[in-house]
């Protein structure tokens, strides 16, 4: 069924995401998207393959979607659940945003956290005072993101047997 | 003889006085076309211009302003959205009542 939200998402599909980001809706449901953000170069997140899910409802684009990391993250603004604390997804949402601009903001949040209201206090404290420790913890999540990729591929193999 | 009308093309054309490629920032549909809330092409779908000069399909901006979290802000510049119509300057709920009157008169 075509609704304003779905029609808008079909238009979002035609907007290329930024470099290092890929996103696409599920084949049978345009209201749920999966995305991968590659960790930006020259940051502790470099080369990580971080997966996210984006859930839209019929109020989109007047209400923001729910954006959540599926990959394990170590970041001041990401809760243990994977949910993000990002102003444009909450009180600074605008109906002019689209999938590409949301993912651009999430990507830039990776290396530019907002320390004033941390979702992960430990990550915020390490980020402020123990940069090398922080980088080490982030690198662990980067390696985990690769391992998750491998596991997925193995799952695929098993499916074929 | 019975004639089946397979296709009907209107001959009268009109367009808003804006570059034709310009799209509404909310629904991403051209201003020459109806917004994505309109089901039938040709539904009345006027433009609303704000004091800040940003413009949107009427239906799109109304839906946004009706949502509490919009705080009546323009989606583009986050200034308070006041629709401009000739001499009249309207803000907040006035936009909505102006828009309703527009609907009935139009
Ligand atoms: Zn529109
Ligand atoms: Zn409309
Ligand atoms: Zn504006």
Question: Keywords for this structure?
Answer:
heterodimer; A: 161 residues; alpha+beta; Ubiquitin Conjugating Enzyme; 4-stranded antiparallel beta sheet; 4 helices; globular; B: 106 residues; Herpes Virus-1; 2 helices; 21% helix; elongated; binds zinc ion
CATH superfamily of chain B: Zinc/RING finger domain, C3HC4 (zinc finger)
| Spatial sequence of strands, sheet with the most strands of chain B | 2-1-3-4
Shape assignment of chain B: elongated
User: Which class do the helix and strand fractions of chain B yield?
Assistant: alpha+beta
Uncertain regions spanning at least 5 consecutive residues of chain A:
none
General shape of chain A: globular
The separation of the N and C termini of chain B measures 38 Å
Distance between the termini of chain A: 37 Å
Bound molecules: zinc ion
Radius of gyration of chain B: 16 Å
Number of helices of chain B: 2
Number of helices of chain A: 4
Q: Could you explain how this protein is built, in words?
A:
Chain A: Belongs to the ubiquitin-conjugating enzyme family. Chain A: This is Ubiquitin-conjugating enzyme E2 2. Chain A: Keywords: ATP-binding, Chromatin regulator, Cytoplasm, DNA damage, DNA repair, Ligase, Nucleotide-binding, Nucleus, Sporulation, Transcription, Transcription regulation, Transferase, Ubl conjugation pathway. Chain A: It is found in: Cytoplasm; Nucleus. Chain A: One of its GO terms (molecular function) is ubiquitin conjugating enzyme activity. The complex is a heterodimer of chains A (161) and B (106). Chain A is an alpha+beta fold. Helices cover 38% and strands 17% of the residues of chain A. Chain A is built from four helices and four strands. Chain A has a four-stranded antiparallel sheet. In chain A, β1 and β2 form a beta hairpin. Chain A starts with a helix and ends with a helix. The model of chain A has no long low-confidence stretch (mean pLDDT 93). Chain B is an alpha+beta fold. Chain B has one domain: 2-Layer Sandwich (Herpes Virus-1). A four-stranded antiparallel sheet of chain B has the order 2-1-3-4. In chain B, a hairpin with a 2-residue loop joins β3 and β4. The chains are: A alpha+beta (161), B alpha+beta (106). At the A-B interface, α1 of A face α1 of B. Bound molecules: zinc ion (3 copies).
């Amino acid at each position: 069924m075509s609704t304003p939200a779905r029609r808008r998402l079909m238009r979002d599909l035609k907007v290329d995401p930024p470099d290092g980001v890929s996103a696409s809706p599920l084949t049978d449901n345009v209201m749920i998207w999966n995305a991968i953000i590659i960790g930006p170069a020259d940051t502790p997140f470099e080369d990580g393959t971080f997966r996210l899910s984006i859930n839209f409802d019929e109020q989109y684009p007047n209400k923001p979607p729910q954006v959540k990391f599926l990959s394990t993250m170590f970041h001041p603004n990401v809760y243990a659940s994977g949910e993000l604390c990002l102003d444009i997804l909450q009180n600074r949402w605008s109906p002019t945003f689209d999938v590409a601009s949301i993912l651009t903001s999430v990507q830039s949040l990776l290396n530019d956290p907002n320390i004033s209201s941390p979702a992960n206090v430990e990550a915020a404290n390490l980020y402020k005072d123990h940069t090398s420790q922080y980088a080490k913890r982030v690198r662990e999540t980067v390696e985990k993101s690769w391992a998750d990729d491998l596991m997925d591929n193995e799952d695929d193999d098993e499916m074929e047997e | 003889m019975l004639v089946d009308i397979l296709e009907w093309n209107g001959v009268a054309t009109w367009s808003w006085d804006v570059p034709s490629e310009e799209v509404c920032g909310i629904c991403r549909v051209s201003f020459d076309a109806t917004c994505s809330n309109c089901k039938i092409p040709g539904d009345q779908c006027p433009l609303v211009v704000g004091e800040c000069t940003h413009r949107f399909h009427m239906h799109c901006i109304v839906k946004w302003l009706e949502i509490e979290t919009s705080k009546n802000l323009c989606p583009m510049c986050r200034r308070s959205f006041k629709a401009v119509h000739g001499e009249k300057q309207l803000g907040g709920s006035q936009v909505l009542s102006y828009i309703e009157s527009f609907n009935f008169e139009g």
